[in-house]
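Key result, reporting period 2: structure in, sequence out.
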C-alpha cells in the first residue's frame, strides 16, 4: 500500500493478478474484508487476515463482484468464521443460492471457485460503516454487469475493483458473450471521474493517486476496443490463457490445449 495513505483501521493486502487485492477495514465494532482472492491462494488470504486481526474474529465479508479471483477464498473464510456475514452484489444471489457455476462465470472461464453462501446483497446507494468511515456502495457495470465500487467521501478513497486500474480496467466479459457493454464501461469511468477520488484502491496493482492519468489510459484503451471489438476479444482470450497458466504454473501442452478446447469463451 502507498505509505501516504494512512487511515486507521484500513489495510490493503496487495496480492497480484491471480488473486485480487484484499482490503481489511476494522473499528471497535466490526471487522470487514473486501474480496477474498483466488482459491489457490485461500490459505494465504486466511493467514493475512488472521495475522492482521490477531485475537479478533472476521465479522463481515464484502465482494465487489463474483469473479473467481475476488471470491475464491469465501468458502474457507466462512468455514473459519462460522458467524461471518457475507454481502454480495445484487443480480447473482439466485445463482449463488443454487450454485449455478455456469451463470457465475466459473464454467465459462475454466476457473475454480468453491461453493459459498451469502447473508445479504449490496444495493446501489447503500452506506456501509467500515473503519469508522461511511462508504457508499455504487453500481459499476461494464467489466461485470453486477460489479460495485465503494467510495469514502471524507478522504475521497475509492475501492474501484476492476472498473479502473492504474493501467486500464478488467476484461469486459459481457462483450465476450456478444452483449454490448462498452457503453457501461464508459459510464462507469464517468462516474469515477465525477467522484474526484484522491486515492484509488484497485482490484489489482498498487494503490495510486494519479487518477486523471489512469482515466485517460482507460478511455484510450476503451476507444481502441470500441473501434475494433475483435481486439478486445483477442485480449480477453489472452488474459484467460495467462490466468490459467498462473494458476497451474506448469502444465503439459496437450493438457493445456484440452482445457482451452472446453472453455466456452474460446
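The corresponding designed sequence is given below.
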Amino acid at each position: 500500500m502507498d505509505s501516504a495513505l494512512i487511515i486507521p483501521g484500513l489495510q490493503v493486502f496487495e496480492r497480484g493478478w491471480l488473486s485480487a487485492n484484499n482490503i481489511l477495514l476494522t473499528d471497535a465494532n466490526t471487522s470487514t474484508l473486501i474480496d477474498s482472492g483466488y482459491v489457490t491462494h485461500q490459505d494465504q488470504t486466511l493467514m493475512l487476515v488472521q495475522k492482521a486481526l490477531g485475537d479478533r474474529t472476521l465479522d463481515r465479508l464484502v465482494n465487489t463482484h463474483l469473479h473467481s479471483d475476488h471470491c475464491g477464498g469465501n468458502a474457507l473464510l466462512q468455514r473459519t468464521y462460522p458467524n461471518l456475514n457475507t454481502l454480495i452484489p445484487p443480480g447473482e444471489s439466485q445463482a449463488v443460492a443454487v450454485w449455478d457455476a455456469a451463470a457465475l462465470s466459473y464454467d465459462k472461464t475454466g476457473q475454480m471457485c468453491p461453493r459459498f453462501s451469502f447473508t445479504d446483497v449490496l444495493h446501489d446507494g447503500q452506506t456501509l460503516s467500515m473503519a469508522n468511515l461511511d462508504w457508499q456502495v455504487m453500481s459499476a457495470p461494464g467489466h461485470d454487469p453486477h460489479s460495485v465500487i465503494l467510495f469514502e467521501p471524507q478522504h475521497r478513497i475509492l475501492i474501484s475493483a476492476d472498473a479502473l486500474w492504474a493501467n486500464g480496467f478488467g476484461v469486459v466479459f459481457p462483450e465476450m458473450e456478444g452483449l454490448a457493454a462498452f457503453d457501461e464501461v464508459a459510464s462507469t469511468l464517468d462516474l469515477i471521474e465525477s467522484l474526484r477520488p484522491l486515492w484509488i484502491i484497485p482490484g489489482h496493482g498498487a494503490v495510486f493517486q494519479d487518477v486523471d492519468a489512469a482515466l485517460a489510459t482507460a478511455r484510450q484503451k476503451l476507444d481502441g476496443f470500441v473501434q475494433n471489438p475483435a481486439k478486445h476479444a483477442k485480449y480477453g482470450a489472452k488474459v484467460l490463457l495467462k490466468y490459467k497458466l498462473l494458476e497451474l504454473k506448469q502444465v503439459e501442452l496437450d493438457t493445456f490445449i484440452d482445457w482451452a478446447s472446453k472453455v466456452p469463451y474460446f
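The chain has ten helices and eleven strands. Residues 10-261 form a domain with the Metallo-beta-lactamase; Chain A fold (CATH 3.60.15.10). This case is discussed further under Risks and Mitigation.
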